[in-house]
Amino acid sequence: MRARATVPGAAVDGLRERVPPSRPVTDGGRRRRAGAAPLTRESLVDATIRIADTEGSAAVTMRRLGTELGVDPTAVYRHFRDKQALLQAAADWLVAGVFDGWTPRGDWADDLRTFILHARRRYLEHPGLLVLVASSSGPVQSEASATDRVLGMLRSGGLDVEDAVRGFEVLQDWLVAVTVLDASPQAESQEPWRRSFAALPAAEVPHLAEAAPLLYEDLDARFRFGLDLIIDGLDRRRGP
Amino acid sequence: MRARATVPGAAVDGLRERVPPSRPVTDGGRRRRAGAAPLTRESLVDATIRIADTEGSAAVTMRRLGTELGVDPTAVYRHFRDKQALLQAAADWLVAGVFDGWTPRGDWADDLRTFILHARRRYLEHPGLLVLVASSSGPVQSEASATDRVLGMLRSGGLDVEDAVRGFEVLQDWLVAVTVLDASPQAESQEPWRRSFAALPAAEVPHLAEAAPLLYEDLDARFRFGLDLIIDGLDRRRGP
DNA sequence: ACCTGAACACCGTTCAAGT
DNA sequence: ACCTGAACACCGTTCAAGT
């Protein structure tokens, strides 16, 4: 899935300025420290995003953060209650920038469609981070304004409040839930599925045999097909 | 979410007969062993399901399996290559029984709808197991015949092969991806979202303020709303 | 053929001690 | 006020040794 390609440097857009390269202080074999950039919530979130993007979310450990920032692993607890709180902050960064680079064109259905696809693209650029959004135990801070904006699009299309809410929830589920799966390392290749299905006895699974060459071809096309079904369905529910 | 309620005993339906209660051999303080039930792939999968259902997937560890079955933790490696292979076997059990207790009534759209809801109910009864299906790196064995059957429903409705395949993929994504999120421990309560959104300044997020009382009310209603949008959309694509 | 037990290389987190 | 370092209670997995 080529959408997995990581845009270099993009990981820290919208975050504070990145810490300057921290001239190698060479304070006698020790890591860095001693006058180096101070440990902050920002530098920790920055490092979390960088590690998750380049090595996957599993690589984000307290010890890894420590060596990355030249600090004792347990120093993280001075800035975040626990690991979960740090990951939540990283998830918040991901959601906060979800409108960056997207401009509405005025047609509610078209805006909805391009925005969801835009958000999906951003999420796929940070596969290691997305799962944290989906599994966070409360709304990340920046979720409120994003929710408000999407609800606004649905209302402007003529949906009543009830349908707008339900439409929002379905679109959010489709975007987040499906993209989480698409961004997981296992989704990288659909080959195992296709090969295994192609090798089945056609007599026992006739419909599958017929469909096998078409199955699991393009994750993005699949996502768009479902998205269009949903938006078309909402379109037919609009008031007069 | 009441759907989380675990049906007692249901965890092992369809699996080999359960091991008899294994009369307490009391072989001198040691766990059991010494004439007790032998360790098999079945007893390991059985224990995995039981532990995941009652204590969550995180509780499934090699050491926990060892004490559960009265055996050294590393004995598992005699029957499964690694932990991932054991979890895959448990996921396979979940998918294998997905048609149990469901009967088609002959109308393709209605059958599709009731089947998907039936599958969702089964998955929600085993929240700790479902995530393993979604994240497995290849098709679980029993997936082929299930895929064949669902494709058959779509074809019988008059969809051509291309639309049937795309429809199947969208329905699968909707079922698995959304239900994985709904079954995650964090989804247990929607309260944090509702409370946090209700407390926002209405002037800044007018649409959200208006919608807040309706948001995140019922995960199942939300799922059905999306499912109906998808099935209705497919219905309109049928041939003459 | 199957199981044991020690060992290895990891985790997140706590807490007393340093500066 | 912030960081260190040892320690605790865990992980999955390997491998030589037992039976």
Report the end-to-end length of chain A measured between terminal Cα atoms. 42 Å
Number of helices of chain A: 10
CATH topology of chain A: Tetracycline Repressor, domain 2
Radius of gyration of chain A from the CA trace?
22 Å
Shape, principal axes of CA atoms of chain A: flat
Q: Biggest interface: chains and residue counts?
A: A-B, 56 and 57 residues
What is the CATH homology-level superfamily of chain A? Tetracycline Repressor, domain 2
- Quickly give the structural class of chain A: mainly alpha
Determine the strand fraction of chain A and express it as a percent band.
Answer: under 5%
Largest sheet data of chain A:
none
Instruction: Work out the helicity level of chain A.
Output: 40-55%
What is the mean predicted local confidence, pLDDT of chain A? 83
**Tally of domains of chain A:** 1
Enumerate the spans of chain A where pLDDT stays under 50 for 5 or more consecutive residues. Answer: 1-35
Q: How many strand units of chain A?
A: 0
Overview of the molecule:
- Two copies of one chain form a homodimer.
- The first copy, chain A, has ten helices and no strands.
- Chain A has one domain: Tetracycline Repressor, domain 2, CATH 1.10.357.10.
- In chain A, helix 1 packs across helix 3 (83-96), helix 4 runs antiparallel to helix 10 (219-235) and helix 6 (143-156) crosses helix 7 (161-183).
- In chain A, 54% of the residues lie in helices and 0% in strands.
- Chain A has helices at residues 41-55, 62-69, 83-96, 108-124, 127-134, 143-156, 161-183, 191-198, 206-211, 219-235.
- With 240 residues, chain A is an all-alpha fold.
- Chain A is flat and about 60 Å long.
